[in-house]
Amino acid sequence: PEEHHLIRRHEDVFVEPRLLIGVGAGTEGGHFGAAGGIGQPLSLLMKLNPLVSRLALYDIAGTPVSLLTSATLTPDLRSYVFPLSPLVKGYAADEQLGQALEGSDVVIIPAGVPRKPGMTRDDLFKINAGIVKSLCEAIAKYCPNALVNMISNPVNSTVPIAAEVFKSHGVYDEKRLFGVTTLDVVRAKTFYAGKANVNVADVNAPVIGGHAGVTILPLFSQASPQANLSDEEIKALTKRTQDGGTEVVEAKAGKGSATLSMAYAGAIFADACLKGLNGVPDVVRLGKNGVEEVLGLGPLSDYEQQGLEALKPELKSSIEKGIAFVHGN
Ligand code: NAI
Question: What range(s) does the Lactate/malate dehydrogenase N-terminal domain occupy (predicted)?
Answer without folding.
Answer: 33-179
